[in-house]
Design goal:
With 273 residues, the protein is of the alpha/beta class. The chain has 12 helices and 10 strands. An 8-stranded parallel barrel has the order 1-2-3-4-5-8-9-10, surrounded by 8 helices. A two-stranded antiparallel ribbon has the order 6-7.
Length: 273
């Protein structure tokens, strides 16, 4: 991948008129009734995810499979993940939500597995181990590594806001570090910033005007599309607005694919509006 990530993402978003990223977080117990018919969990998850991808692709610029949900299926889960990745259309970027974070030597192998073996366009990592844990990911040209900065979960405030570095909240310090790490890297770095913290989102966009943002928390977690776009969408830095549960589980019946497509379309229109 020689073309940088951000121009590719912007091109896809312009062509499809959408900033929607569909999160693939398949929970076997929550699959629609037609898929809970006694078949193997792996088969059910594969069928569910591939159907969701097909139904929502017209309204999405990206898909974000969360590795935890596939790894929980056991050894066959990675095969299912690989099969699902193969169904994602070429006009969408693929972001692996793996949240890796380890010392440099290990990070090099994690990065190779995501970017070289699986061929992902982007992934998520934790910044806690510092620069040497992030740089192996940033060495991959044409990719974007999104660093957890101010996340959307309730516990985000425990460290990200409560702890300070150089007189500023930890999440701001992380954002400054990520900007420095990416300055001379072959790949791009972005920030994961939750829609549930609109003040931090606005603050971080001012601090990092050109970095790509991955923004979870719209939908089931309560983030408001209009507020997110007002705070984060700029001409310089592209945004990916992720929604998982509100799209995946829009219906528990045989119309689950149609309901997911409608939910994705509704989010696209809300973001564009």
């Amino acid at each position: 991948m020689s073309t940088p990530f951000s121009p590719r993402l912007r091109r896809v978003q312009a062509q499809k008129n959408t900033a929607v990223c569909v999160g693939l977080d398949p929970v076997p117990a929550r699959l629609p009734a037609p898929l809970r018919d006694g078949r193997l969990r792996t088969d059910a998850v594969r069928a569910f995810c591939t159907t969701i991808v097909e139904a929502t692709a017209p309204y999405a610029c990206a898909f974000k499979p969360n590795f935890a949900f596939f790894e929980a299926l056991g050894p066959a889960g990675l095969t299912v993940l690989d099969q699902v990745l193969a169904t994602i259309p070429d006009d969408c970027v693929v972001l692996g939500d793996a949240k890796r974070g380890d010392i440099g030597h290990s990070a090099r192998f994690y990065a190779a597995s995501l970017y070289e073996e699986l061929g992902l366009d982007a992934c998520t990592i934790s910044p806690y181990l510092g620069r040497d844990s992030a740089m192996p990911f940033l060495e991959h040209e044409g990719t974007c590594t999104f660093v957890l900065t101010r996340t959307s979960n309730d516990g985000a405030a425990d460290l990200q806001e409560a702890c300070t570095c150089d007189g500023v909240p930890l999440y701001r310090h992380v954002a400054r570090q990520v900007t420095d790490w990416a300055a001379d890297a072959s790949g791009e770095a972005g920030l994961v910033v939750g829609a549930t913290a609109p003040e931090a989102l606005d603050e971080l966009r001012t601090l990092c005007p050109s970095l790509p943002f991955l923004i979870p928390g719209v939908g089931a977690q309560g983030g408001r599309p209009a507020a997110v776009m007002e705070a984060a969408a700029t001409d310089e830095g592209p945004v990916l607005i992720n929604s998982s549960r509100s799209i995946l589980y829009a219906s528990q019946g045989p119309d689950y694919a149609e309901a997911a497509a409608e939910a994705a379309q509704h989010l696209r229109d809300a973001l564009n509006g």
